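U., I forgot to send this yesterday:
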Amino acid sequence: MKLLSFAVPCYNSAAYMEKCVESLLKGGEDVEIIIVDDGSTDQTAEIADRYAEKYPSIVKAVHKENGGHGSAVNAGIDHASGLYFKVVDSDDWVKQEAYMQILDALRNLAGGETMLDMLISNFVYEKLGEKRHKVMRYKHALPVNQIFTWKEVKHFHKGQYILMHSVIFRTKLLRECGLRLPEHTFYVDNLYVFEPLPYVRNMYYLDVNFYRYYIGREDQSVNENVMIGRIDQQIRVNKLMIDYLVENKNKISANKKCLNYMLSYLDIITTVSSILLIRSGTRENMDKKKELWDYLKKKDWIIYRKLRYGLLGQCTNLPGKGGRKISVEGYKICRRFFNFN
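Result:
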């Protein structure tokens, strides 16, 4: 069994995927790299096959009909043989020194008495045109270099969340929790780091800058104009997160810190949805914003009240044109936290 499986979802990624794959190959025989060609129409399939032929004991090339990012992640999970699993998007890469530390930590933890469920590390926003790169780290919220449970988790700052770039899950845990991301839908990475959390019994945080998250292409899914154009998919993911939390609330409530974290994460996603709808400036999208909040209200009044009358909920629901202007200014602060477009 391999120590760590990487899934690399690729859709027309020929121009940049080699940088990603080359960075992952430095892990040697301890890792497997599953390149998932999601129905590409460029040279992606040929590049994937070339790597699989050159490194047959490390690289798998999986070819499938186009189903979107979530479908490619699902395929990666299905084909993974590693003890642990990580998604690396094809325009991102990993830093070698931190990579070696990650593998060392996983080796040591895999041989211990306690089976680790989730490893967390830092990621770096490699934003186009910026000399200084923002690092998302967690040392104020999580114990460092030790196995811990939700009880030891401290307070996360607003804008500080465990994202897909931060996590390595135990592969079997992803299968046990039944994670299946929706097809033909963007922004499903939010579900990827949300739905498995009630199944995570223990964690380990390594304070290293492992994942390099490239951001800046005009066609990138996190570009603000692209997000507004795909707002219905953002809303779909938002509602799926609401559904999951409401349907599993009794189970999650037994772990108060896990519940509080998931509520906080849902809060920020609902805020992003709301502000993008405001930013679009259309009456239709203002109606969608009201419908989203009404959806939450109908699903669970207690969660609705907590989010609607919290700081972010109040800021994104200020009345009138002047209120919307203030909400947008708040969004700009949020954007500075996230660097998401």
